[in-house]
Amino acid sequence: MDTTPVRRRPERAGPGRVPELLVLVCSVAAAAAAVAQPLVLGRALDLLLYDGDAGPWLAVSVALLVGEVLLDGLTALLTGRCTAGWTASIRSRALTGLLRAVPDATRPYSAGDVGTRLTLNASDAGGAPAARAALAASLITPAGALVALAYVDVWVAGCVLAGLPALVLVLRVFARDTGSSVRAYQRVQSDIAGRLLEAMEGAETIAAAGTSDRERERVLRPLTELGALGERMWVLHGRALATGGVLVPLLTVAATAVGGIRLGAGALSVGELLAVCRYAQLAAGFGSAAT
């Protein structure tokens, strides 16, 4: 009798915090470059208009622009690697836990629900660490833009601050409504997957009984509800884009108008007005960060 011990497959360890830290560093550096660029470019424009030596400022502006592009590309690459590593780890650990669980513990979950959790839901969860790291950049950019805007002109900064609550409210309502729609969509999707797996397990019986059409109808019955939920998500998405597409330009136009008045009063230069317009657009990022 063979008494060789069974070798257990080692559990897959998570990718650790290094990929997440790299995403954080690159995204924060890219955000810092984006915040610094309008002020530097505005200063270079003022020097060009008044016959000053704008060479060093133009060089710094180009360096910031190139650095931001490179850092954004590196952030996207590292985000993909981080998400892939965490997704593989989550799937491996979830599958290991499922295989080790006693039948009574897994009975409440249908086969379709388990399949959806191991595929779609695991991918969503795997992107959480990278999204958490990128959240710092999504906060640094609008916060830095507001600080820089207040440094350039307090009145324009006040105008932007007055319009931000409306944008934040619209996007928070969108996030709340979308969350409930996504949960309902995933529930129906799991139901369809469970019915399909049941039909595949009994394929021979279905073929012998000649009930293929009836079984097809049973599997696809929730498809109408799934389509309605998907359409609702796209409607909510389009509504938020339309509203944000109106509020953000209005906020930028209002900031530009106030900046133009300040320019006419001699409180701002042309380069500072250019910086004000760009900072107003960056400050609108507070709305997306609020979701």
Shape: elongated
As a percent range, the share of strand residues is under 5%
Report the sheet with the most strands, covering strand number, pairing sense and barrel closure. none
Which segments are poorly predicted (pLDDT under 50) over 5 or more consecutive residues?
Answer: none
First-to-last CA distance? 62 Å
**Record field, number of beta strands:** 0
Q: Helix tally?
A: 11
Look at the structure and name the CATH superfamily: ABC transporter type 1, transmembrane domain
Number of domains: 1
Please state the CA-atom Rg, rounded to the nearest Å: 27 Å
Percent range of helical residues: over 70%
List the helices and strands and how they pair.
Blueprint: H1 18-49, H2 55-100, H3 103-106, H4 111-126, H5 128-152, H6 154-201, H7 203-209, H8 212-220, H9 223-264, H10 270-283, H11 285-289
Q: Mind explaining what this structure looks like?
A:
With 291 residues, this protein is mostly helical. It has a single domain (18-289), classed as ABC transporter type 1, transmembrane domain (ABC transporter transmembrane region fold). The chain has helices spanning 18-49, 55-100, 103-106, 111-126, 128-152, 154-201, 203-209, 212-220, 223-264, 270-283, 285-289. Helix 2 runs antiparallel to helix 4 (111-126), helix 2 runs antiparallel to helix 5 (128-152) and helix 6 (154-201) packs antiparallel against helix 8. The termini are far apart. 29% of the residues are buried.
